[in-house]
Amino acid sequence: MISTYFLLAGMPSISLNTSVSERLQAISFFLVLMLLSTLLVKFALNSFATAFGFAKFNYRQSLGVSLLWGLASVVVLVMISGARELMTPGAWERKGLTHQLADRGENDDKEPAPPDLEELRRQKMIVIQGQVLKYALAHEGRFPQSIHDLSEGEALFELPPPLVGEYVLMLGQRYGERPQPVVIEPYIDREQWVMMSDGALLRMSPVALSLLQGDQP
User: What is the mean pLDDT of residues 121-140?
Assistant: First the structure.
């Protein structure tokens, strides 16, 4: 083995890539199965030949019978597949003088994609931000003291479906003062959306939010 390594050292070597190698392995596997199954076919044919007094089959003749049998099986399977396609209701539609396969669409059988909850949460906070800032602009920088002060009221402060819960409105805040939470999203994930008194939208962990609220005078 060591001498073999010395002979191959530095010499160019040709090898097949993974795809070709796997295909050759699959072909060789089915070829071996065909050759082995030919032995069974030969045994069966010679059993019938002995019983009825016919000449026995050699291996080459048995291999030919196996190949013809396999081709006939493929033709039958193709015919069955075509018949199933032809007999499927609505599979074909008339196009002029001929018929063509109906366009069923690629997404007919697919389940609808689940909603992007993160994007829904962000969009809802943007809507709330716009309404709250609009109120503050009309009331000398004072934020609403109740959710009913806004036009949509309770519906505005409900989480977007399929989530359930309500946003929290902090009272006593004014626009432009030291940034403090004004609207807080309920705890859903590791971070919560928070609208600050300067109008910014932030994502904060519950711990950071608690520390910020603890700093309020």
Answer: 90
